[in-house]
Amino acid sequence: MSHPTVTFGNDFDTKNRSAFGERWMLEQIFKAIGPAPLRFMFKGGEAVSLPGVSPVATIVIRDRKTLAQMALDPEVAFGDAYADGRIELEGDLTSALEAVYRSWPSGRADRSFYQRLTSTWMERRQANSMDGSRHNIHSHYDLGNDFYKLWLDSQMVYTCAYFPTPSATLEEAQEAKLDYICRKLNLQPGERVVEAGCGWGALALHMARHYGVSVKAFNISHEQIMFARQRAAEEGLSDKVEFVEDDWRNIDDKFDVFVSVGMVEHISVSDYARMGQVIHRCVGDSGRGFLHFIGRSYKGVFSRWIRKRIFPGAYAPTLGEAMNILQPHHYAVLDVENLRLHYAKTVEHWLERFEQAGQKIAEMYDPWFQRACRLYLAGSIAAFRIGTLQLFQISFAGSQSVPRAWTRAGLYAGAKPAQEDRQWTHATS
Amino acid sequence: MSHPTVTFGNDFDTKNRSAFGERWMLEQIFKAIGPAPLRFMFKGGEAVSLPGVSPVATIVIRDRKTLAQMALDPEVAFGDAYADGRIELEGDLTSALEAVYRSWPSGRADRSFYQRLTSTWMERRQANSMDGSRHNIHSHYDLGNDFYKLWLDSQMVYTCAYFPTPSATLEEAQEAKLDYICRKLNLQPGERVVEAGCGWGALALHMARHYGVSVKAFNISHEQIMFARQRAAEEGLSDKVEFVEDDWRNIDDKFDVFVSVGMVEHISVSDYARMGQVIHRCVGDSGRGFLHFIGRSYKGVFSRWIRKRIFPGAYAPTLGEAMNILQPHHYAVLDVENLRLHYAKTVEHWLERFEQAGQKIAEMYDPWFQRACRLYLAGSIAAFRIGTLQLFQISFAGSQSVPRAWTRAGLYAGAKPAQEDRQWTHATS
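Structure tokens for the assembled complex are given below, as produced in the milestone run.
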């Protein structure tokens, strides 16, 4: 992949020695991220951008050390400097990140030796062993239920929602997602479901309440399990839903249905075969299942900044990689749906609520945390909008299982006509 | 994978030396195909079946040579002997094959040295090079349009149909399939579409007629292209649809949309990267496309009898293998649908028409051909019913392409309520 030739306008004084070094460092940044429509400003000096590109935002860098770090490793250095307040951004953060993702060479891997080294180091340090997973999950999901209550929906669903129409509320869209999954699984009263990675329990409770199934739901986040158990008790569903604080690798009971929403991202590719074994141990050849996860259209490591600060051990597989979970046991893929734009919209809602709760969050956490979260949410919106990340829902069935729906039409029975779809299409094209 | 222990009842005289050899050969057959509920009868002698299994059909073997061949290589020997008339089957052929597919160890590969050797030999002899493909395609698709007219639908669509309800006619279901593909692709008037492997041209003509697109459609079957061109002329669509008698590897124009229905099966896995290149050369990063093909839920060679007698060079990939077409160019998978039961139903219609036209076919071809075709159709029904074969439809989009539909609901707008679905589910469960 060739990099753009970087030529700046004349507004950057190259006779000045110091400016020459800065110019070189900026060139390195542009070489790494591609010809992004961004303006850089160093120490309040002159603004620099690529000629012929109209910038969507200005990145104000406070000190030379930050500039040097960004030249070495733009992604991680930008993230850390933004969270530290060593960088200020003038303009809309999400739009700026979107512009970078758009210009960043497609299939961006960590290309430099330094980047590959730190990526490998991170992978080892954050390995998703039994203990490693517990640590990785604890560091994010146990930040405090009160924190998540401020910006998630009322049911605390921390995965991609399904918006029947783009104007649905977040509450409607999360409820719609829970139900969509149940319908995709064609749940029947009396069936036994196992859920691997159940978050705060919304899906398990929805299944039991509306579809008459019994659910055993696993999670290694202590805070989430405590919350889920309390909710089950309050709603009189404790006899139908059992919340177990344990690792998915320890699931060994027999079930009709396996479901996992937003957990594959926390499993290492090297453990996919094991995940397949666990699924097969649970539901065998006659069972069926459902996987919902953040994926990618090309192989590549997850953002190192996200792995360093937000989701240690995370990985977003391609559909081909995810097949390593299902193929060894001859599970037939029945349906795959890509909902990446629904995830962009979900996170737009989260970010809006997050900003509305800004004052409360500032009272609970330090400014670093608040800025890091903002960057994580804005970056997620950008990645799902641009297609750097995808969201896959996969329905699958064992080799002895008979498909339960003749067509997918039943999933959409009673759906509104496509009119609103078309309006949306025109609005974004 | 362990094989069943074969123990016959006492009705087989083991004191007789000759019977001892026959018994051993029958054991080999059962070891290969698993504990199938079949009865074997040799030279009109005693009937043999596994104890405790109630047979669905009786296979009458005429001579010892056929029995020996079946012991060595049950699949190919059975196919050839059935087509030759050296074997007669008492009972329903499709049910018998279904029983075999059900008992055959899942993921059945060619296990014996002899089977692997002949499989490899076939692969080399039937390689899908430019010339090889022309030969392979000619041998099946140029059997004569008059032959296919006897048992395909009126539009001559020789791929899996889409039955909105199980009771739809074949004509309705093929028309519905053509339209379903257009809607999945979200075709817009004025767009340019390229079709790789266009059969007798029904999809290309449907797209041009109903969606206002222009289509360039490729096929190396001379008979099919001549038929398609004549139909385009008769329907006044020659200016919108160009039928080109050439190999998919030679497509090099620019298009908005790439579509291929029922051709991936005729491409070698080693050529998938090349197929990806051709797609990318045609529609780039901003285009989109659609693949429809017979697939599998596990890796394994295609039936050697089918490759030997019906479809030389054929292969049914797993979804993971098919990703090798799309992943190198970062195509995002938007939608995968598995329609295997629709293919079973499609071939049921074909077989019914084939049998109804039996007298005519007998006048056109020799008995061998008629019996071979019957076996191929019945075997296909069985394979799609049991899940030995799958049918995948994949919608994909380039990394710069924006998804055009917010949800899939528009695909099913106006669809009948799910009532008939449910009736079907109960009827088959």
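Chain A touches chain B through 55 residues (CB under 8 Å). Residues 367-386 of chain A form the longest helix (20 residues). Further analysis is deferred to the final report.
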